[in-house]
Structure formats: C-alpha cells, structure tokens
Amino acid sequence: MIKKILAISLLLIYFTTSYSQESGDYELFVEEAKELSNLYRGAAPLNYKFKYTGTYFAYSEEYVLGNVFYNDKLYKDVLLNLNSHLDELYVFVSENGMPVMLNKKFVEKFNIDNRDFINFKFNGTEIPLEDGYYEVLWSNSENKLIKKTIKKYEERINHLANLETNSKIERFFLHSDQYYLLKEGSVKEIKRVSHIRSFYGVSGSLIRKHIRDKALDVKHNKDAAFISIVEFVNSFLLPESR
C-alpha cells in the first residue's frame, strides 16, 4: 500500500506546476524574489503523507542557509536541505513559506551548514557509481574522499497497533553512509581503514599508529576518522609528500 502512495505522489510531481505559478499573486512573488525567482521556479517536492520515524533529510529537518551554484549562477544565503531518500535538493521560499525541488541537471554544487556537496555525473565514465549528490569530505588536486548519505524507506509489521496511527505497520527511514575514494578515474568504496591503506598502497602500521595518536573513533565517527587518515596519508606517506 505504501508503495502505491509513493508512486501516486511521485506522479503528482510531474503534474504540479511551480509554487510561484500556482500563486494568485505571481507578479508580486517575482517582484519580492527578484534575482532568486529563477531559482524558485521548481517543482513541488514529494509530500510524505504518512507517519514515519526518523527523517528523509540528510542531517536535519531544518532548512539551513547555504550557497548553491545553479544554472551557471551562484546563489548565496538561501535556505537549503537535501532529501537523501530521493537524492533531491530543496530550497525554501520565504516569500510563500514553501519548499521547491531544484532541477538536478542545473545543480553543480552547493553547501549546507559547512558541508560541501557536488552533483557528480559519473555516467559515461569508468567510475561505477550512480550520478547524484555526494558530500566532499576531503580533497586535493589529485584525489577526493566523498560520502553518499542514503535514507532508505523501510516498513515492518509489529505485533501491536500504534496508538497514534492505529496501525501495526511501522514506517521509517533507515540511515546509511557510503564512503568512496576517487583518484585519476579510479574509485574504491571505503568500509574500513584497511581499504584506505590498500587504495594508496601504504603501511598499515603507520596508519594504526596515527589512529592511536589521534584517538580516532573509527567505529562511531567515520567522517572525522577517515578525513584524518586520508589527510595523513596524503601529507606524509605518499612518495610525492616526502
């Protein structure tokens, strides 16, 4: 049943015009939005009309001020949020109090709350990753450590009905992170520290010493740990860094 709801909602997106066009005072909207009006001409986001646990957004339900490079133009200090279930970027329109889904083909990069994202287009390359929004955790001129945050929709049947929804079906978004290293057209998924060592072909003992010295929590804080290790490898262990 929930799949039908999602399918119907997705179809509605294609038949929904932009919020600004739906408004009876479109001219007033354009006047107030001014140079942001092009950014705000997007489709209505998917409306999740069911109770769920967790969030489909990457980090928070809150829209945060950020910058987005859209259709060859940089827009600064706009309210953004990333739907990691559909891999879609939303911008919040203060003039009418509604979000808009940006056309992905026009989004080049953006940042939210000091996190940098790139709309990678791997199709047609040798890199076997799906196109979409990836967070750039660390980079230099030769390689990048990137992260894909995924919010997968799941449901399960409980023995007792939920008092709020009067249903035994529990719907939730399951959070998972995927890490990758990119270098010269090659890619490796990083699930553990040994994958970083093998990708660069460096000493595992030196990496383990770095982890101990920096008291890195590889299990519970992979972002910080992987960033520190990759930076350490590139700064001290690779031949060109010596």
Characteristics:
alpha+beta; 242 residues
Describe the structure.
With 242 residues, this protein is of the alpha+beta class. The protein has two domains: 51-190, no CATH class; 193-242, no CATH class. Helices cover 25% and strands 34% of the residues. It is built from six helices and ten strands, in the order αααββββββββββααα. The protein has helices at residues 2-14, 19-22, 26-33, 193-200, 204-214, 222-237, and strands at residues 64-70, 73-83, 88-93, 98-101, 107-112, 115-120, 132-139, 143-157, 169-183, 186-190. The chain has a ten-stranded antiparallel β-sheet. A hairpin with a 4-residue loop joins strand 2 (73-83) and strand 3 (88-93). The longest helix is centred in the last third of the chain and has 16 residues, at 222-237. It is globular and about 55 Å long. Residues 1-26 have low confidence and may be disordered.
